[in-house]
């Protein structure tokens, strides 16, 4: 399995293109919903675009529901430094969820 590095330089183990993605960033949610809608399975309550986005909701950018995320069995969670807390990223990774 290749090990990639995210923007912070942290290792992110990804075994091929992710098939199930949860987004914790509204702007990234919108981009994923437009480019790979079939892969987007979860997003925050703040992810309101595109209109009518029909995916599971995992609370907010600063207080994501880790259990709800785990139940979605994502291959990847996308986050960023401006929107998300490092502690949430670390907790998801500790639970075996790859976070970019």
**Main sheet summary:** 4 strands, parallel
Q: How many helices in DSSP terms?
A: 3
Shape: globular
Let me know the average pLDDT.
94
Ranges where pLDDT stays below 50 over 5 or more residues in a row are none
Tell me the helix content: 25-40%
- Tell me how many strands there are: 6
Radius of gyration: 12 Å
| Strands side by side in the biggest sheet | 5-4-3-6
- Counting helices, strands and paired strands, the structural category is alpha/beta
Strand content is 15-25%
Question: What is the H-and-E element order?
Answer: EEEHEEHEH
Distance between the termini: 16 Å
Descriptive keywords:
alpha/beta, two-stranded antiparallel ribbon, 100 residues, 18% strand
Describe the structure concisely:
Helix content is about 25%, strand content about 20%.
Architecture overview:
The structure is a single chain. The protein is α/β, with parallel strands linked by helices and 100 residues long. The chain is built from three helices and six strands, in the order βββαββαβα. The strands form two sheets. It has a four-stranded parallel beta sheet with strand order 5-4-3-6, with helices on one face. It has a two-stranded antiparallel sheet with strand order 1-2. The longest helix has 10 residues. The two termini are 16 Å apart. The mean pLDDT is 94.
């Amino acid at each position: 399995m290749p090990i990639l590095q995210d923007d912070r330089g942290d290792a992110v183990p990804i075994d091929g293109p992710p098939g199930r993605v949860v987004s914790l960033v509204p702007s990234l949610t919108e981009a994923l919903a437009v480019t790979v809608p079939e892969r987007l399975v979860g997003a925050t309550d703040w992810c309101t675009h595109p209109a009518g986005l029909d995916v599971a909701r995992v609370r907010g950018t600063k207080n994501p529901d880790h259990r709800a995320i785990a139940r979605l069995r994502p291959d990847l969670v996308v986050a960023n430094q401006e929107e998300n807390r490092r502690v949430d990223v670390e907790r998801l990774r500790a639970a075996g969820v790859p976070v970019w």
